[in-house]
Amino acid sequence: MMNQDLEYLGLSSLKKVYGGHIFVQFNPKLCYVGNMKWQKLFLSRATSQKSFLVGNADETETCSK
Q1: Which one of 13, 40, 60, 62 has the fewest beta carbons within 10 angstroms of its own beta carbon?
Q2: 1-65 architecture in CATH?
Q3: Beta strands in 2-60 (DSSP E)
Q4: How far apart are CA 17 and CA 21, in angstroms?
Q5: Long-range CB contact pairs, 1-4, < 8 A, 24+
Q6: Which residues contact 47 (CB under 8 A, 6 or more apart)?
Q7: Which residue has better confidence, 12 or 59?
């Protein structure tokens, strides 16, 4: 997911990710995406599924701590 203006994911109803990985990358206005417990969404804790969170506002001084 890449969007220069994205500030909110709006995934409050998301309960499980049954297959594939989670990519949230290069969203310079998106804060706190790194605080989410992405691994809990995967079907199994022993799965090879991964979350990739890169280049979001969490990694800069943009977000208030």
Answers
A1: 13
A2: Alpha-Beta Horseshoe (3.80)
A3: 22-25, 51-54
A4: 8
A5: 1/25, 1/27, 2/26, 2/27, 3/27, 4/28, 4/29
A6: none
A7: 12
Separation CA 54–CA 45 (nearest Å): 22
Report the alpha-carbon distance of residue 14 to residue 58 in Å, rounded: 21
Contact, 63 vs 33, CB < 8 A?
no
pTM of the model: 0.77
CB atoms under 10 Å from CB of 9, counted, come to: 14
Whether 45 has a pLDDT exceeding 80, the answer reads: no
Give the domain ranges of the chain. 1-65
DSSP 8-state code for residue 59: G
Contact 65, 34 (CB under 8 A): no
Residues 7/30, Cβ–Cβ less than 8 Å: yes
- β-pairing verdict for 22-25 and 51-54: parallel
